[in-house]
Amino acid sequence: MARNRFAFFRGEIRPVEEAKISVMTSAFNYGTGVFEGIRAFWNAEEQELFVFRMREHYARLLRSASVLLIDLPYGVDDLCRITLELLRREEFREDVYIRPVAFKASEEIGVRLHGLASDIAIFAVPFKAYLPEGGIRAMVSSWRRVEDNAIPARAKITGAYVNSALAKTEAYLAGFDEAIVLNEDGQVAEGSAENIFLVRDGVLITPPVTANILEGITRDTVITLARDLGIPVAERPVDRTELYLAEEVFLTGTAAGLAPVVEIDRRTVGTGKPGPVFTRLHELYERLVRGKEPRYRAWCTPVYSSPAR
Ligand code: PY5
């Protein structure tokens, strides 16, 4: 398998072997980092790689960083420029996943956020499917989602992914593909690494941003597409049993894309096959991320023909 050769680390693009942190690093000890997942999609006809909603991802990274008092000497424009440069150095001609991580880099004992040096690393790897294709079998997790007053889910904090990992592995060990996690109020929050959508009576429903979810960029994309297609959308609290009664359920995320859920807690969702609302949105999404839909082309940044080159 092709792999990556470079990483942006300590202010420079270097061979990935040189991009190493010490065991004493604060973020390694306490989970005090924030990260992003960004995808770039290969368009074979145009021989071009398109980064999807890169500015929005870096804007979210900087918002996450501000929650943890991680100060970076880079703005959104700088991070976009560095990412394009990194992808060009890699000469990728396939779908890739870009992972920026901003973190507390000081090498001293002490659990805190203030008065510690920060740094950012960025790498990108070839990437295909994150979840099994054709339909997900999910379970409602016995783990609850992290609360805003404990570890804010809205900030994409590395340490908070212990919560996701516990839920994901519980589901895997029980024979399912993915976990659906409730918040402390007992209402549906999201998947282990995806937002969640339901269709009931033709209305597309997703939990609100105050339900201890990550404010997903794919979630925002799907809401935008649904509105453009004339599909009614409701952002509102979702009960567990609505998962069992929905006509359709699907998950959304950068890594997962749009993934239909066909079974939850061993109950068949809808017809047990990807539903019509999902299928419409999914087909459009798969085209637009590769720059094939002029209306949404502004979301796609070309890597090789970019004017910033
Ligand atoms: N909720 C959680 C907990 C997530 O980790 C993610 C993304 C999402 C929702 C979806 O957000 P977005 O649409 O902005 O990607 N998860 C990461 C991803 O890259 C990490 C996966 C390993 O998809």
Topology summary:
Layout lengths: L5 E4 L2 E4 L10 H5 L2 E3 L2 E6 L4 E5 L1 H14 L8 H15 L5 E9 L13 E9 L9 E9 L16 H13 L4 E5 L5 E4 L3 E6 L2 E4 L10 H12 L4 E3 L4 H6 L2 E6 L3 E8 L2 E2 L7 H13 L11 E3 L7
Parallel strand pairs: 8-9, 8-15, 12-13
Antiparallel strand pairs: 1-2, 3-6, 4-5, 4-6, 5-17, 6-7, 9-10, 11-12, 11-14, 14-15, 15-16
Helix pairs in contact: 2-3
2-[O-phosphonopyridoxyl]-amino-pentanoic acid binds next to helix 5 and strand 14.
Structure report:
- This protein is an alpha+beta fold and 309 residues long.
- The protein folds into two domains: 6-128, 2-Layer Sandwich (D-amino Acid Aminotransferase, Chain A, domain 1), CATH 3.30.470; 136-288, Alpha-Beta Barrel (D-amino Acid Aminotransferase, Chain A, domain 2).
- The protein has helices at 26-30, 54-67, 76-90, 161-173, 217-228, 240-245, 276-288, and strands at 6-9, 12-15, 33-35, 38-43, 48-52, 96-104, 118-126, 136-144, 178-182, 188-191, 195-200, 203-206, 233-235, 248-253, 257-264, 267-268, 300-302.
- Strands 8, 9, 10, 11, 12, 13, 14, 15 and 16 form a nine-stranded mixed sheet that branches.
- It is globular, with a radius of gyration of 19 Å.
CATH topology name of the largest domain: D-amino Acid Aminotransferase, Chain A, domain 2
Give the domain tally: 2
Strands, count? 17
Which series of helices and strands comes N to C? EEHEEEHHEEEHEEEEHEHEEEHE
Strand-residue proportion: 25-35%
Report the radius of gyration as a whole number of Å: 19 Å
Return the CATH class of the largest domain.
Alpha Beta
Give the names of the bound compounds: 2-[O-phosphonopyridoxyl]-amino-pentanoic acid
Q: What would you say the CATH architecture of the largest domain is?
A: Alpha-Beta Barrel
Alpha-beta classification: alpha+beta
CATH superfamily of the largest domain: D-amino Acid Aminotransferase, subunit A, domain 2
